[in-house]
C-alpha cells in the first residue's frame, strides 16, 4: 500500500504564511523603539525632560528647606516631594505627547498612507506604538529613580506595598496615556502643527495637576478642573506610593483616594480606546 504524504498548505500552493497580527505588532515594537531613540527631540522632550526638571527643582529650591505637611509631621526634601510628579509627567509625555505628535507627523508625511497599502493592520500598528511607549516609559522611570536615589540622595520606598501601588498606577496610567495619545493625534490638521497643538495641552495639564506646583496650593476651582483629567490622578497615585502617609493631608480630600485613582485612570483608558477606534484612519478624510 502506498503511503499518502500530505504537504503543508503553503508548499502545495506555493504561498508563504503571513505573520499574524500579534507577530507583526511585536516586530513593530523594535522598529518604533529604534526610531524613537534616533530622534533627538523626542528623546529630550519626552524621555529626559522629567529628569532635567527634577534636577532644576532640586537645585533651585533646596535652600528653602524641607516640605512639612503639618505641625509635628516629618518633612521631606524638595526633590523627594517632586519626584512622584515627575514620574507621572514622564508617563504623560511618553504616552500622550509622544504618540500624538508622532502619529500626526506620520499622517502628514504620508507614512500612514503607505502603511495602509501593506498587510499591516491597525491593531498591529497600535501594538507597535503602545509597546514602544511601555519600553521607553519603563526605561525612563528606571533612570529617573536611579538618578533620584544616587545623585539627589532621595530615599525610595522600602516596603512592597508602596512598590505595588507604584506598579499598578504606572501600568494603568501608561496604558491610558498611550491610548489618549493615539486619540489626540487626530486633532492636529497637519503634521507640522502637531507640536503646536499637543504640547500646550500637555504643559497646561502639568501645571494644574500638581507636577510643577504643590497641588494643595492651587485654588479649589483649578483643582476641580485638574480632577477631570488623568494626570492629576497619576500624580496623586505616585505621591501615595512615594510620600509618607502624613502627606495625604495635602490632597484635595485629605486622603490618597487610591480607589478613585484606579477608577479615573480606567475611565480615561476606555475613553482613549473608544476615540482611537472611531477616529484612526490611515489617511485623513480631508486629505
From TrEMBL:
InterPro entries: ABC-2_transporter, ABC2_TM, ABC2_TM_bact-type, ABC_2_transport
Regions that span the bilayer: 42-61, 81-104, 133-154, 166-187, 194-215, 258-280
MF GO annotations: ABC-type transporter activity
Coarse class of the protein's main subcellular location: membrane
Intracellular or extracellular location(s): Membrane
UniProt KW keywords: Antibiotic resistance, Membrane, Transmembrane, Transmembrane helix
Membrane topology: Multi-pass membrane protein
GO biological process: response to antibiotic
Pfam families, alphabetized: ABC2_membrane_3
A cellular component term, taken from the record's GO annotations: ATP-binding cassette (ABC) transporter complex
Residue ranges annotated for the ABC transmembrane type-2 domain, each copy included: 41-286
Protein name per UniProt: ABC transporter permease
Organism: Agromyces intestinalis
